[in-house]
Design brief:
This protein has helices at 3-16, 20-36, 53-76, 84-106, 114-123, 130-147. The chain has 148 residues and is mostly helical. The protein has one domain (3-147). It binds zinc ion.
Length: 148
């Protein structure tokens, strides 16, 4: 899924399960679960050549900025304290995609990311159907906005 969907899911989990050691594996599992659901993301189209690495990179930066804005809106604006748990959760939630980024953009796979990348490729389900691919993520974002 997009970074915004992953990031706010992680923030939601981390703010509900406030022990970071307990929330960490659940947040990581949420990333792979969400990537298993057919979705569109900014890497969709890279493998079949319908999108360039530059387009995917720029899309990823926009997605990251949107995630940061959503974190501020959902957890920070009405909170006088720094929402550390929300930021922690978002960081953990997008970690699998960061580990995958060197292989996608640089053609280099660090040894420590190999098992995570293999799991990612096994589970990841992209769709070019924009209604399903974006609709599922809008549903996730709306649900978290209402439940947070
Ligand atoms: Zn992913």
């Amino acid at each position: 899924m997009t970074l915004i969907a992953h990031g706010i899911t992680g923030a939601f989990i981390a703010t509900k399960i406030t022990n970071p050691l307990l929330s960490f594996p659940i947040i990581i599992a949420s990333h792979y679960f969400e990537d298993w659901i057919p979705h569109f993301d900014f890497g969709t189209g890279l493998s079949n050549g319908s999108k360039t690495k530059k387009d995917a990179f720029i899309g990823g930066l926009v997605d990251f900025a949107a995630m940061c804005l959503a974190l501020l809106w959902f957890w920070q604006l009405a909170n006088p304290q720094i929402a550390w748990l929300a930021y922690y959760g978002a960081f953990v939630a997008i970690l699998p995609d960061f580990l995958h980024a060197p292989e996608v953009f640089l053609g280099f796979q660090p040894f420590f990311s190999k098992p995570f990348d293999q799991l990612h490729k096994l589970i990841h389900t992209s769709t070019n159907n924009k209604v399903i691919g974006i609709g599922t993520q809008v549903a996730v974002i709306l649900a978290i906005y209402l439940l947070r």
